[in-house]
Every structure is written in C-alpha cells, then in structure tokens.
Design brief:
Elements lengths: L14 H27 L2 H28 L1 H8 L2 H37 L8 H14 L5 H24 L6 H20 L7 H25 L3
Helix pairs in contact: 1-2, 1-8, 2-4, 3-4, 4-5, 4-6, 6-7, 7-8
C-alpha cells in the first residue's frame, strides 16, 4: 500500500489540485500585499505577516506539485511496461510523495506558527527555535500518524481565531466586517483541519475537508480585495 497525501477518491483527483491553486493565489496575494505595507510603513509585523503567508503559499505549491506527479503514476507505469523498471518507477513516486507531503506539512505549520506569533504579539523570541524543532518533529511523526499534522494545525488555527476575537472585542469593533473576515476565515479553516483528521472513517472526509478549506479562503480573499480598494 503506497503512502498517500490524502485518501483521495478517484473522481476528486485534479479537482483538489484546482482547489489548492486557488489557495496558492489567495495566500500569495495576501503575502505580497503585506510586504507592500511593510515597505510603506517599515513595521516589522507586516514583514513577518507576509513571510508567514508566503510559507503557506509554498506549502500549497508543494502539495500541488506532489498531486500532479502522484496522480500520473499509473500513466507512467503503463508507459514503462517492463516489470523491473515499473518497480523502480513506483519507488521513485513513493519517495517523491513522502518528501512532497512532508514539505507541505512543515511549511504549513511554520506559516501558521508565524501567524500565531504575530497575531498574539508574542515577545519571547527564544522560544521560536524550540517551536520550529517541535514542528519538524511533528512533521516527521505525521508520516506515521497523519492526524498529528491536522491536530497541530487545528491548535494553531484555534489560537489564531481566539486572538482575533479578543483583538476585535478589545477594539469594540466586533461588528466590523473587515475585522470579522479573518475570524470567519480561520474558523472555517480550523473546521477543515478537524474534518481532515477524520480520514480514517471515510475517504469522503478528504472531499469535505478540501471543500470547507476552499470556502475558508474566500473571506481572506474578500479581506484582500477590501484592503486593495482602501476600505
């Protein structure tokens, strides 16, 4: 049984890749906009906010690349024909999928940690190397137990949602749609990670998780459009 990035139903293959392309576009646009704000204001938080979303964009890029290669595995096997070469071909895909999947998970967790660190306005920079090591270990462990990645991602997203809520409440602007958009977006993304963790129950959880995740990026896209329009 080959290692899988997700238990993807055959009919959903390539559709999920399209979803990830949208995720890359949204996260990259936000990263680019945050960097422009940094250049204009010279505020460090914008620089690290940009870096965090850029890491998330890179993570989805790795997932897209892995999907494209792995989903074409059967075609490659039919083309090669010979048994010995087919075995070698499968091994190459096997290792590529593992590396691509682990890269996706590491950059995703690193990006989420960056957002958490900025939004929570943490001051203890000495803890950053320790957290990065823990993220690396979680990524490696997720090769054995995939849900470890989704649970840690959900924890980061949960703390991000809570901190956004506290910030909005503190500013007494909880009804402001621009401030609510990140809360809604990260809440939906949190839900998607919880759904992904249920893959052991049914492959359809992957389809639902991907769909919910895509919906979660829409409020972020809305927020980006509002920022660009200066509202």
């Amino acid at each position: 049984m080959r290692y899988q990035l997700g238990i993807t139903p055959d009919w959903f293959k390539d559709i999920d890749t399209g979803f990830e392309v949208i995720s890359v576009i949204v996260t990259f646009l936000i990263a680019a906009t945050a960097y422009k704000f940094y250049k204009l204001t010279d505020e460090e938080r914008y620089k690290w906010f940009s870096a965090s979303f850029f890491l998330i964009a890179i993570s989805y890029f790795f997932k897209i690349l892995t999907n494209i290669i792995v989903y074409n595995e059967e075609l490659g096997m039919q083309t090669l024909g010979r048994f010995t070469y087919t075995i070698q071909y499968v091994h190459e895909y096997y290792y590529f999928e593992i590396i691509g999947t682990l890269a996706f998970r590491f950059f995703m967790l690193a990006g989420l940690f960056g957002l958490y660190y900025i939004i929570c306005k943490c001051q203890d920079k000495k803890s950053i190397p320790i957290i990065i090591v823990l993220i690396f270990l979680t990524t490696i462990f997720s090769n054995i137990q995939y849900f470890a990645f989704h649970i840690i991602a959900a924890l980061f997203l949960g703390t991000i949602v809570w901190q956004y809520y506290l910030n909005a409440k503190l500013q007494n602007k909880s009804k402001n749609i621009t401030l609510r958009s990140p809360i809604i977006a990260f809440s939906i993304l949190l839900l998607s990670q919880l759904i992904f963790s249920l893959l052991f129950l049914t492959p359809e959880a992957y389809v639902v998780g991907e769909t919910v995740q895509l919906i979660g990026f829409l409020p972020l896209l809305y927020n980006y459009i509002q920022l660009v329009r200066g509202k």
